[in-house]
Design brief:
Radius of gyration: 21 Å
Structural class: alpha+beta
Strand content: 5-15%
Largest sheet: 4 strands, antiparallel
Number of helices: 10
Helix content: 55-70%
Number of strands: 4
Length: 283
């Protein structure tokens, strides 16, 4: 267990480095904006510096300040484990944004937009894959989705669309288009690393159904349907556990299965819709 948590923190640290490199070496000097709270922090820094003449408030510091109230909300509304690791991710990102110098490696804005998007997408993707997030928009989108019963992607689209419009209004309209390119590349990279679907169905074939049920119920608030199953080749009787989870719970489920029954066969598929009761607020 301790080794797993160390690996998790290490992955979050690597993700924070990638996000900081994406911003300081590619996006900031090119006036191309990242998605979510990172993009909002960039915009606020640009406005304070270029229009109000206020110096000293870096993107990393503003990002950290913006995430404080969000972390408090996430602690009560999303889940403590998820929020703690998300807070660690934000703290590391802020630290590396202050350590890594802001430089422009290329004068080609397309190269900055693409490489910044790739590195940022890698940072977010591996962080999500290991059961955390980069904070900010992820947590707010989850909370709003539970309150309004709308897809998480709707809120991502709204916030990121606002960033694109403001970037085009304050600076050159081309910057808005390059920001759109960065957001597209970031999303594609995240999709390649970690599923972005809101809900997933897990089908677990196991010889230890009772133990798995007990462990899952102890750590996750999710219903399970258990069905009898039989291996066609071995003719051995088994059980199949079927459950629907959110994408943020995927890491926890993988960890539980690997601890209880490493030999279990698990199939994860996208869930496009649910009818009936599905717990949305894990209190």
């Amino acid at each position: 267990m301790f080794t797993v948590e160390i690996k998790r923190i290490f992955i979050v640290l690597v993700g924070a480095v990638l996000n900081a490199v994406s911003l300081n070496l590619f996006l900031i000097e090119a006036n191309v904006y990242a998605s979510g709270f990172t993009g909002i922090a960039q915009l606020m820094t640009s406005v304070l510096t270029d229009f109000l003449g206020i110096q000293g408030l870096s993107t990393g510091l503003i990002l950290f300040i913006l995430n404080i109230p969000v972390a408090i909300l996430g602690w009560y509304k999303v889940g403590r484990g998820f929020t703690v690791y998300s807070a660690v991710s934000v703290a590391f990102t802020t630290l590396f944004l202050e350590i890594i110098p802001i430089e422009q490696l290329s004068n080609d804005i397309i190269l900055n937009a693409v490489f910044g998007g790739v590195l940022g997408g890698m940072g977010v993707g591996i962080t999500l894959k290991w059961g955390a997030s980069t904070g900010g928009l992820d947590i707010i989108a989850m909370i709003l989705s539970r309150m309004k019963d709308r897809p998480i992607g709707t809120y991502f689209l709204f916030i990121n669309g606002a960033i694109i419009v403001i970037a085009g209004f304050l600076y050159e309209p081309e910057n808005a288009l390059y920001t759109l390119l960065t957001l597209y590349v970031t999303t594609r990279v995240i999709d390649a690393i970690h599923t972005r679907h809101e809900k997933l169905t897990a089908m677990i074939i196991t010889n230890k159904a009772a133990d798995l049920e007990k462990s899952i119920h102890a750590q996750m608030v999710r219903g399970i349907t258990t069905l009898p199953a039989r291996g066609a080749f071995t003719q051995q009787d088994k059980h199949m556990l079927v459950m629907v989870i959110t994408r943020y719970e995927l890491y926890d489920l993988q960890h539980i299965i690997s601890e209880v029954d490493p030999q279990a066969f698990t199939n994860i598929v996208q869930t496009t819709g649910i009818f009936g009761f599905f717990r949305k607020d894990d209190k």
